[in-house]
Amino acid sequence: MKISSLSIIILLTISSIFFIPLIQCHQPPKLDLIKAICRKTPHYHLCVITLKSNLYAVKYIASNTDISGFVRVTLKVVATRAPVILHQLQTVQAQTKDIQLKAALDNCIASYTKISKELVPQAQKCVDKSDYNGVKQSATTAGNLADTCGKKCNGTTSSAVLSQLGDSNQYVKNMCAITVSIATQFPQSTHQILP
C-alpha cells in the first residue's frame, strides 16, 4: 500500500489538532514556580525572562525546591553587569571634557565600584549564611546607588552620551529590586523550602 503525501499531510494536521493544544497547556511545574515567585516582584516579565534564560536557575530548580537559588541568579546577573557598567563609565569619563558630566560620572564610578566590589559580594555571602535581611539590605543599597547614578547623569547637559549607560543602569536597579522582592519571600534568616 502506497501512502500519498496528501495522506501524510492530513494525518499530521489531525495529530497536531489533538496534541499541540495539550502540549501548550501543560507547563512544567518548575516554570510555574518561577512565575509564582516573579509575580511577587516589581518587574514580573524581567524576572521571568532572567530566571528562565539562566541555565544555572533551570539546572538549580530541576534538582531542588529551595528558592534561594533564584536570589543567587539575580545577584549573579548584577555581579556580571556592574563591572561592565563601571568600565563603560570610566571610558566615557576619560573621553569627556564636560565638567558637570565628569562630576556625575565620578559619583557613578564610586557607586559602581561599591556595587561591584562590596555590596554584591556581601549579598552573596549573606545568601550562603541564609541571612536574607542582609541580602535585602545590600541589594537595596545597590539599587539606590544605581538610581542615584542615573539621576545625576540625567541632570547633565550631555545626557545623550549616556543613553546606553542609562539603560544598563536601569537594568541593574530593576534586578536589585527583583532580588529584594525574592529575598523578602523568605522567613527571617532561614531557607524556604517549597512543597
TrEMBL record:
InterPro entries: C/VIF1, Invertase/methylesterase_inhib, PCW_Enzyme_Inhibitor, Pectinesterase_inhib_dom. GO terms for molecular function: enzyme inhibitor activity. Residues 1-25 form the signal peptide. Residues 29-182 form the Pectinesterase inhibitor domain. The keyword Disulfide bond applies. One of its GO terms (cellular component) is plant-type cell wall. Keywords: Disulfide bond, Signal. Belongs to the PMEI family. This is Pectinesterase inhibitor. It comes from Medicago truncatula.
